[in-house]
């Protein structure tokens, strides 16, 4: 029952829509209706301010780290359960119960999970996140490149096989949905663009 409770708490923590809350209270707008419509830190940076975007990023990171920290405080040491606890936080961010089961891309929350499970790689996550934002955060190629670099560092820094496989599974499963969403958006965008060109 304790594990189930931790899963539930983790999902609720992940579901807290900080981007939506900050934007609504600061400028009175729904973050889902401005910019690219994504309720995440990057959209807040672009449409509210860099300062508040970083604050949202920090909060989204904490909500990924806190449930695992709570699990450790309650004596949970099994890497499998701790990883699954982190998964629920990321799922909560991407499919928030407070936003009708919609949400952001989960990058910052995933970073919080990594901070708790593999703190040595957290600086790399920050570098990859900001690099992707600067180049093109919507590009599936950029996202796949970041995942590949991350997994490469996991392999060389954490040589224990169980850590490598479980964290790899975590990243691949949860970012897979995000990548698919971006690929679908990109394909739809190209189709719309082609239709407009034909109409012209």
Structural class based on helices, strands and sheet pairing: mainly alpha
Helix content: over 70%
How far is the first residue's CA from the last residue's CA? 61 Å
String of helices and strands: HHHHHHHHH
| Binned strand content | under 5%
| Tally of helical segments | 9
| CA-based shape | globular
Beta strands, count: 0
Oligomer: single chain
Would you summarize the structure shown here?
With 200 residues, the chain is mainly α. The chain has helices at 2-15, 18-27, 41-47, 50-73, 79-94, 107-117, 122-135, 140-157, 161-199.
Descriptive tags:
globular, 200 residues, disordered C terminus, mainly alpha
Can you give a write-up of this model?
The protein has 200 residues and is an all-alpha fold. It contains nine helices and no strands. It has helices at residues 2-15, 18-27, 41-47, 50-73, 79-94, 107-117, 122-135, 140-157, 161-199. 36% of the residues are buried.
Topology readout:
Layout: H1 2-15, H2 18-27, H3 41-47, H4 50-73, H5 79-94, H6 107-117, H7 122-135, H8 140-157, H9 161-199
Helix pairs in contact: 1-4, 1-5, 3-4, 4-5, 4-6, 5-6, 5-9, 6-7, 7-8, 8-9
């Amino acid at each position: 029952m304790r594990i189930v409770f931790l899963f539930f708490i983790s999902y609720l923590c992940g579901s807290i829509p900080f981007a939506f809350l900050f934007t609504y209270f600061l400028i009175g707008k729904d973050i889902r209706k401005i910019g690219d419509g994504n309720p995440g830190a990057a959209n807040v940076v672009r449409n509210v301010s860099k300062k508040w975007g970083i604050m949202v990023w920090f909060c989204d990171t904490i909500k990924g780290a806190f449930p695992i920290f709570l699990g450790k405080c309650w004596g949970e040491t099994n890497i499998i359960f701790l990883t699954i606890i982190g998964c629920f936080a990321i799922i909560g961010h991407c499919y928030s119960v407070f936003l009708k089961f919609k949400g952001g891309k989960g990058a910052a929350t995933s970073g919080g999970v990594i901070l708790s499970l593999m703190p040595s790689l957290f600086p790399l996550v920050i570098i990859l996140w900001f690099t992707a934002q600067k180049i093109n955060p919507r590009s599936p190629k950029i996202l796949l490149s970041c995942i590949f670099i991350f997994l490469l560092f996991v392999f060389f820094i954490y040589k224990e096989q169980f850590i490598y496989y479980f964290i790899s599974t975590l990243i691949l499963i949860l970012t897979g949905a995000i990548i698919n969403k971006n690929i679908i958006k990109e394909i739809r965008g190209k189709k719309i663009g082609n239709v407009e060109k034909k109409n012209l």
